[in-house]
Amino acid sequence: MKNTVNENTVNENTVEKSTTVGNAALPVITATHVSKNFLTDNGEDLTVLKDLSLTLHEGEIVAILGRSGAGKSTFLRILAGLVPPSEGKVEYRGTPLSGPNPGVAMVFQTFALMPWLTVESNVELGLQARGVGRKARKEAALQAIDSIGLDGFESAYPKELSGGMRQRVGIARALVLKPDALFMDEPFSALDVLTAENLRQEVLKLWSDGSGSLRSILIVTHNIEEAVQMADRVVVLGSHPGHVIADVPITLPRPRDKHAAAFESTVDSLYAILTGKADASQGEQQKQALSGLQQMFADSSQGNRTLPDATPGGLAGLLEIVAEYPDGVDLADLASALTFEVDDLFPLLDAGALLGMLDVKEGHVRLTSLGREWNDADILDSKTIFARIAMSHVPLVRSIDRTLRQSKNGKVRGDLIVDLLRGKHTDEVAQQQFRIAVEWGRYGELFDYDSDDDTLSLDEGGQ
C-alpha cells in the first residue's frame, strides 16, 4: 500500500481512506465513449471531444499528445472530475465519478500558486482542505518539499522563485496528497529547455524510486520528444473535434537516450501520425473542382475544411530552411534546429502541404518542385507563383477571386464571405478563415481588402 499521513490526524474523506485494498487491482481511471459539447456565446452547439475512451493502469505513465485545439486539457479535466462529460462516463477504481476525482492531484502549466502564501503554506493547501491536522500536514509538506529539491525555501513566497522552482512547488503540492494518479497539464511548456529537462528527470525519478509516493502519471503535452521520453503509452488525439487516432505503446528501455536511433524512430513515427491527417485532407482538397462561392458552400464536405493559420512570410521562411536539406529533413530535427515546439510548426507544414510546396510523410519533410520554384524565385516572381498556386490549391481563395470577377463593380463585402462561412463553421473559425484567405490573396496580389469599408476588391495592379 502507498504511504499515508497518520490515520489519527486525517479526516475520513481523504483519498487514503477512500481507496481500499479490494479495488486496487482495478484500473485507476477508465473513460468510456466520452464526448463534450459546449454552447457558444451565439447559441451554437460546439463539439470539442467525441467518443474518447482511455484507461490508466496502476504504475503507468500515459501521455496525451495532440495539436493545439485537440481538446487535450478539456479531456484531462473531465478525467479529473472537474468538468462533466456530455456523453459517456469516467470511473475511478470502478466507481463512476459524480464530482472531483478523489484519486487525482493536478499540476498546471501556469503553476497556480497563491502569491500571498509561502511555499510551505501552498503545499499544505490540499491537506488543509481535507481536514488534516496542523502538525501532520506540516510534516507531510516538508517531506514533499524536500523530495522535490526545495529544502530551504519553505518560507519563501512565489515571487521570490524562478519558474522552475514555482513548478516544483506545484508538484510538491500535488505529491503531498499521495494521489493514485498525478495529472500534469503541459507542466514544462512555460519553462526554459534546461529547466524543463531537469524537472522531467526529477518526476521520472520520483515515479521509479519504488517508494510508492507517485504511482501513475497522466501528462498532456504537444511535445513529441517529451511524450516519448516519459510515457509507457502515447494516446494521440486528432482535432475538430478531439478524437483518438492512435494509442502507441513505448517499449524503449529506461533511462531513454534521446539520441538513440530507436528513440528518434519512435519520435518520427508519432510525427507521421500527427501529420497524416493533414496529408489526407490535402489530397481530398486537391480533388475539389469548384467554380464560384455558392457552389463551394453547397458542398458540405468542402465547407467544413479549414485553412491552416500560417502566413506566406512564415511559410517562405520555413521553405528556406527545408531547402538546405536536398533529401529533406526529419520533423524532429527541424523543430530542434528552429528551437520551436512542434505545435508552432504544424500550421506551416499544413499550409505547405495544402499548397503542394512540401511533401510531409512518415515524420520527414522535403520541398516539392513547386516549393523549390517558389523558394528560388525573386520577390516579384514569388508573388505571381504564389497566386497561381493559391488559385489552384485553395478553393476559398479561388472562389473569392471568381466572385469578385463576376461582380459588376469588382467588389464584394467581407461580411458576405464570413456569413457564408458561418454556415459550416463557428463564428470564430469563420472570421479566422476569412482573415487567412484575405492575407493569402493580398500576398498573391489577387485581391485587396479595405477593413474600414469591409470591402474586398480586385487588385488592379496584380494578377
TrEMBL record:
Q: Which InterPro entries does the record associate with it?
A: AAA+_ATPase (IPR003593), AAA-associated_dom_C (IPR018632), ABC_transporter-like_ATP-bd (IPR003439), ABC_transporter-like_CS (IPR017871), ABC_transporter_ATP-bind (IPR050166), P-loop_NTPase (IPR027417)
Does the keyword Nucleotide-binding feature in the UniProt annotation?
Answer: yes
Which key words tag this protein in UniProt?
ATP-binding, Nucleotide-binding, Transport
- One Pfam family of this protein, by short name? ABC_tran
Residues in domain ABC transporter? 29-264
- Gene3D superfamilies found in the cross-reference section: P-loop containing nucleotide triphosphate hydrolases
SMART domains noted in UniProt? AAA (SM00382)
Q: Which CDD domains match?
A: ABC_NrtD_SsuB_transporters
Q: Which GO terms describe its molecular function?
A: ATP binding; ATP hydrolysis activity
Protein name per the record:
ATP-binding cassette domain-containing protein
